[in-house]
Design a protein that fits this description.
single chain; alpha/beta; N-terminal domain of TfIIb; Rossmann fold; Dimethylsulfoxide Reductase, domain 2; 4 domains; 7-stranded mixed β-sheet; 24 helices; globular; binds iron/sulfur cluster; iron; metal ion binding; 4Fe-4S
Length: 694
Amino acid sequence: MSAPAVCTTCPYCGVGCGVLATPDGAGGLTVSGDKSHPANFGRLCSKGSALGETVGPEGRLLAPRLYGKAAGWPEATAEVARRFSETIAQHGPDSVAFYVSGQLLTEDYYVANKLMKGFIGSANIDTNSRLCMASSVAGHRRAFGTDTVPGTYEDLEQADLVVLTGSNLAWCHPVLYQRIVAAKAARPSMQIVVIDPRRTATCDAADLHLPLAPGSDVALFNGLLRHLDQSGAVSEAFLRASVEGFDEALAAAISAAPATAETGLPDALLHRFYALWAGTEKVVTVYSQGVNQSAQGTDKVNAILNCHLATGRIGRPGMGPFSVTGQPNAMGGREVGGLANMLACHLDLENAAHRMAVREFWQAPRMPEAQGLKAVDMFDAVERGQIKALWIMATNPAVSMPEADRVRAAIAGCEFVVVSDITAETDTARLAHVLLPATGWGEKEGTVTNSERRISRQRTVLPAPGQARHDWQIIAQVAAAMGWGSAFDYSSPAEIFREYATLSGIAAQLGKDFDISGLAGLTDADYADLAPVQWPVNTTRTGGRFFADGRFFTPSGRARMLPLRSAPTAANPAFPFRLNTGRVRDHWHTMTRTGQSPRLSQHMAEPYLEVHPDDASRLGLRPAGIAEVTSPSGRALCRTMVTDRVRPGEVFMPMHWTGETAALGRADALVASVVDPVSGQPESKGAKVAIAPF
Ligand code: SF4
C-alpha cells in the first residue's frame, strides 16, 4: 500500500501553491496540485510539478565541516558559538552579521532574528528578500503606516482591469497568471494591461502593452494621477475621510514633465491606458521586481499607491495595489522581522515602546536602537573588515548579490564565515570556514506566508538525509552554546509559532496590522493540521481585505500620498546598453535545485542575452553566437538571442547561472551596487553594460 499524500506548500515563488506530496518508497516523491488550497486550487506550474525530480541526494551536504574537514555537530556548534562570542567580546555586537533568506521557514526566520536582535544585540540581520521586495515594504510603510498587502488573489479575478507592471507574471508567478487568464476567458470584458520595457510572455494575454522606457514608472503614474484629477475620477469623499497629502502629490505630478517625454510612449497609447484606468472602478495594479529592483523603487511603489488612494480603489473587491513577492517566504520574513530595519511582528526598530515590548517579551538582555546593515551595506562592511564573523543561511550571495565578484572576494576575506545550506558545493559554501547541513523542502516542518498574506504549512515528507538538521534547531543550538539556552529551548516549530503568534497580539495592541493572536493557543495537533489561513487571525476576524473601513495604520489613521519626482539615471557612454535581469520560466535562483531536473533544464539550457536586431546588426552579433558583456564590475559571456522583444539600446540576461569564472553568464557580476536610498534595494534591472561579439 502506498504512503498517504502529505499536504505541503511549494518552495519556489510567492504564489504559495498547495502541493500533495507522496513518498515513492525509494527516497523520492511524486507531487500533484492540492485542489483544496486557495492559492492554486490544484494548479501547479512547471517548477512545482517537477519538485519530485529535485529532492534527490545529489550534491547534498550531509555532515558538518570544520575548516574543510568532516566534524560532528557538538564540535561544529561549539566552534561557531566560540568564534561569534569572542568576536562580539572583542569588537562589539555590530562586528557580526547574519545574511538569511526568503527560503527559510517563518519559524527559522523568527529564531535567527531573535538571536541577533535580542541576544547578540545587533540589528545586523538582513535577507536576500532585500533584493526582492524591500521597496514594496518601504512604500507600504510610507503610505499605510505599516507593511500591509491590502488585497487577496480573488481581487485579481474580480477586477475589470488588471494592470501588470514590472512583472513577468507568466514566468515568475505562473499559477497566478493562469488564474487571471482563466478569469478573462470566463469574462472576456476583463482588460489586461502589461507595462514592461520588454515584450514578455505575459504580454500574450494583454489587451494593451506599454513598452515604456526603463525607469520611467514615476513619470507614467504621475501622469495617471494628473489624468485622474482632470477626468474627475478622484474620490473626494475618500480623500476627505482617509487620505493626507493629495494636494502635494498632485502638485508634484502637475509640475513634472509630460509622461510622453520620459516614458517614450506615444500620446495616444498613454491616453488609452489613462482613460481605461480612470474609467474602470474595479482596477488592480500588480507590481513586482520591475518596480522594486530600482534605485527609485520605493517612489515607484508610492506612485502606484498614490493613484489607488486618490480614487479610493483599495480594500474593496476587485480593486487595489498588489505587490507580488518573488520568494516563497519573503512575506513570512517580513512578519517576524528578518530585515535589518524592522522588529518582529511588523514593530518598528526605531520606536522605543516597540523595542521595549519585544525586549520584555523575549526577556532579552539587550536590543539595538538603530537599524542594522542592509544587504549591500552588509557585504561592503564585510569587505572593509568591519564584519568579522558572518553566518549565511540558505542563500548564495557570492553569485546573487550585485557586483558578485567583489562580494565573493569580500566573503573569502572575512575572518570567520559560517554557511548553513542543503547543498555542499555552492559558490558561497566553498568560501565557508564552517559548513552546517540543513534540511530542505520535504524534510522540514514549519510555515510560509504567500503574497496574499496566507500562512500555509510546509510538512515533512522525507527523512532528513545524513546529519542534516532544521535551521531553527541549528540556530537554537548555537544560541544555547553562547549561553542563552533557556530563551531558545524550543522543542518544535509549533512552539516557536505559538511564541510569535503571542507576540503578534502585543504588536496589535501597539497598533500594528500583523495579528495572528487567534492562533497563539494552537496545540501541537492543531499546528500539525493547520489549514491555509490568511492573516489577520484574531478574536474578531480572519483574513479578508485591509482598509475597507478607510482606516490606516499611520498616527492620524489616514493614508499618506507622497509628492514624487522622476529621477532618471545618467547615461555612461563607455557602457551604452541598459541591462535588464530576471528569471526564466523553469529555473529558480542559482539552480541548486531546479538544475537537477533535466526536464526543467531543457527550457533554457544556457545563459543568453536578448538583444534587438538593430543593435545586433550594428555590433556584428550573430543569432546564437557568443556575446561578451562587460560592466564596470564584471564580465560575462552569453549565447546571443536576437529578438525584438527588447527595445534598441536595452538587453536582457537571466540571473540563474553560476560558476567560478566570469565566462559562465553570471548576470549579477555585471550589476552595480546602486541602491534605492529608502529601501536599500539594489537596482538589478538597470546596469550599464557594453557588448561585443566574442
Ligand atoms: Fe510553485 Fe510558484 Fe509554480 Fe505555484 S506558481 S507551483 S508556488 S513556482
